[in-house]
Amino acid sequence: xxxxxxxxxxxxxxxxxxxxxxxxxxxxxxxxxxxxxxxxxxxxxxxxxxxxxxxxxxxxxxxxxxxxxxxxxxxxxxxxxxxxxxxxxxxxxxxxxxxxxxxxxxxxxxxxxxxxxxxxxxxxxxxxxxxxxxx
Length: 135
Ligand SMILES: [Zn+2]
Known about the structure:
Elements: H1 3-14, H2 20-28, H3 32-48, H4 56-63, H5 70-76, H6 80-88, H7 95-117, H8 128-132
Zinc ion binds near residues 114, 123 and 126.
């Protein structure tokens, strides 16, 4: 998978064009180094989409993880842009809840961003659904 293909895939996931459960299985099949790179990419996108403290509860609900999962505890412990780095650095066995949470946080922030864009923007990642047709 090229970096561009992966970027499209992760944006489709954020926009609900792919299911989080399917993509979690895809994530689990990747090598540990690739999983780290995917987490870092999602954290970057969430930051770029201006994920904020107001997004934390919705992200944890959308992720379907337990409030006591370390990724969720970390996200609540401070401002997202600081906590994202700590979530990316979680040990291998905590990478799946980290993936689900970062994908959900990116999705929640991007929902707001897309509402602001209102179809008038030139962000390539906001033109995916028109390119693909209905999911
Ligand atoms: Zn846009």
